[in-house]
Amino acid sequence: FHFGGRGEINVTLGVPRLRKLLIVASINVKTTTIQVPILRSSSALCKAKRLQRRWSRLLFSQVLKNLNIHEKLSLKLNDHKHTYKIEFYFDEKYGEKQLNEIICSFETYFIPRLCRSINKKRKELTTSALLRSAHIPEKDDDDDDDNNNNNNEENETDDEETMQDTQDENDQTNT
Q1: DSSP 87
Q2: What is residue 6's three-state secondary structure?
Q3: Which of 42, 78, 114, 167 has the highest Cβ tally under 10 A?
Q4: What does pTM read for this prediction?
Q5: Domain shared by 31 and 15, yes or no
Q6: 2 three-class SS
Q7: Strand-pair partners of 132
Q8: Same domain as 62, residue 41
Q9: Distance (Å, rounded) from C-alpha 46 to C-alpha 154?
Q10: Quick one: 53 and 102 in the same domain?
């Protein structure tokens, strides 16, 4: 765990792995590692650093300096706009080439994922709002018969009249 406290190294072992190591306490720890000997030339060191950067995960929070979201609402239906202003913080250790890689990666991967996530959440909110606003008529649960016989007769008469009206409309449409 010699990478502890280093944000640019992806250490996913954490406390659960430490706990397991202490409980098992074996002399030979079976954590997957890789050791690569590097030649002492400047070109080999440069290639090793580049490989290290490619294998290291750089989190968005590590390069994010500021994020502003500006929302503009309109009275027209579906006419609202969101503007996102993102300011990056770059350390000199990244170098110019890696800055371009970070920006390209951000545009290629992060922004589409962010848009999908926002659209998914917006659909969830819209669906839940529609479900809350839907009105479901309540059933009459009381046990009294509130002139049940009269209501049934009236309903049957109304149904017959409606069926006759529908049949008349269909006949007129077909001619």
Answers
A1: E
A2: coil
A3: 114
A4: 0.41
A5: yes
A6: coil
A7: none
A8: no
A9: 91
A10: no
Domains in the chain: how many in total? 2
In sequence order, what are the beta bridge partners of 66?
87
What are the structure tokens assigned to 126, written together? 């819209």
CA 56-59-62 angle, to 5 degrees, is 110
Residue 137 lies inside a defined structural domain of this protein: no
**Residue 168 included in any domain:** no
Residue 139 counted as domain residue: no
In tens digits, the chain (175 residues) has pLDDT values of 455 555 555 555 567 767 776 777 666 666 677 787 889 899 999 888 888 877 777 778 888 888 888 888 877 777 778 888 888 887 777 667 677 888 888 889 888 998 899 889 888 887 777 667 665 556 655 555 555 544 444 444 455 555 555 555 545 544 4
Q: Which residues contact 140 (CB under 8 A, 6 or more apart)?
A: 146
Residue 90, domain member (yes or no)? yes
* Contact of 38 with 44, CB cutoff 8 Å: yes
Give me the domain span that covers residue 9. Answer: 1-57
Residues 6+ apart with CB under 8 A from 78: none
The whole-angstrom separation of Cα 3 and Cα 56 is 12
